[in-house]
Amino acid sequence: MLYSVETRSLSKSFGTVTAVNDISFAVESGEIFGFLGPNGAGKSTTIMILTTLLKPTSGQALVFGFDVMTQPKQVRQSIGYVQQESTVDEYLTGKENLLLQARLNHIPKDQIDKRIDEVLELIELSDKQNDPVVTYSGGMRKRLDIAGGLLHRPKVLFLDEPTVGLDIQTRRKIWEYIKKIHKEFEMTIFLTTHYMEEADQLCDRIGIIDRGKIQVIDSPENMKNAMGNEVISLTFENGNSTDFLSQLRQIDLIKKINEDNNKLTIFASKGTEVIPKIFQISSELQIKIISISLTQPTLDDVFLSYTGHEIRDDDIGFNRKQEHVKMKRLRA
Amino acid sequence: MNSLMYDTYTIFWRELKRYKKSRSGVLIRLIQPAIWIIVIGNTFSGTQPLIQSVGFEGQYIEFMAPGVIILTAIFTSIFGGVNTLWDRRYGFMNKALTSPISRSSIALGKMSAISLISALQSSLIVGIALAIGVTFPNPFMIAPIMAIVILFSLGFSGISVIVAATAKSQETFWGVINFLGMPLFMLSPALFPLELLPDWLATIAKLNPVTYTVLLVREMMTGVSEGGISTLLSIGVIAVFVLVMVGLASYVFTREVNKPF
Fold first, then answer.
1. Which of A106, A146, A293, B244 could serve as a FRET partner for B199 with CA atoms 20 to 30 Å apart?
2. What is the ipTM of this complex?
3. Which of A53, A151, A155 would best serve as a mutation to test chain B binding (most B beta carbons within 10 A)?
């Protein structure tokens, strides 16, 4: 089977920093596949390898069976790449930008006008096509960027953080356009995002990537189902958390527990039945529960359960966690 | 080959579009050479006996006008590559690099656009020179002079593209460009005849492609040849300079853009 995108033990280091660490995955033709992870997880680096901008340190990356190292030209002919930042020329008009894009991608001369009109209509910018881009809003620029990426009908469209920096209405609008172009052209779409909702809305399958490693690949639905169907968050104080946790783990309905200081995230089925049991255990151990809540799992919870931290955690958070782990080891 | 030409034209077209939309830049870049030709041209008008001693009959301002035309060409073209840095910073470069066009066509497109822009700027200086009374013995020479300016600027734009592709920051770019631009202009007979330079300076000047361009353009403008350097030699030196720079620039550019920025 020929995959649209395939990597085998792909790694990329910059000096001593490993940005992408031994990742292997395959994206099927026509799929919308998303890389979900925080900033600095290695998403953009992977895209830059797949689009021939960076050479991998080791491993292999294939786009439509073409090796990015040995057949970069064929790879470039098969892909469209929409970068994180807007790359349209501000002083050119929307149409001129697309004309440039068409020429860069060797669209036959007699088809250029037709294709440009077609995508302009698709992204609903026909009436603004002769205005300089400098007058466009952020969302319009992004649409123009995306239009440029699909003008030559690539087999794989790479979208690097397609809605970063846009407000929520505009973001939703961009999602609609992405779904629309996917339906229209049936190309494979490979996108990266750090928005849970975006991955949930758009992707057939998601790879959760953190610190250069893929933690899990599955459909958003499966991921959420694997969590159990409910999430109990609780905070407590004073008491032996080790005993508390080990007793909680004996409850059958609890599938997974994440611990962060005095905060527990419990993934369970039939949460309403689990909560009384939690209280029973806590009162036996004289642990005081400060707050408790019961919610449906979101991709946020999925992410937390696979990476041990929330996606909004910045590096300081990570360092603190490391610090915490170190302290724990020292105490032991 | 065909596709190299097409791709080069694509980049050339984009660069010229950008130039056309920056009208204020066109005028700002004229201020410096205009000051040179007006202020220096008049300040040194007293050196007329000196330049007459080497066989030049006209006024000093007529002697140095070709020098200022070349000055315009030098600085327009050597500054011209700076947008390479912006392109790398703001993603246009990545867009071009992930498209099927060849790397060298990006460099060549930029260079040809820069050299045409340089010729346009220089022709405006020719206009200023005519306006302040510099006479042209042979007006039909303007077209071939512009051809020489385009060719010469192509070589200098190569320097600019090399520096821009290698430099990782604006600071480095401007540092290197300023270090190169002024000395290359000064170490030429643009303002002063080659024969009147001290021997060691004249020797250095003879290694400078600017020298041959100035001599050639001055000969075409005024009909006076100096320094015992033949027209053919000047054309030859310029041609070799341009070929070397074009080759070197596409090589260095291709190598540098493959590295992460």
1. B244
2. 0.86
3. A53
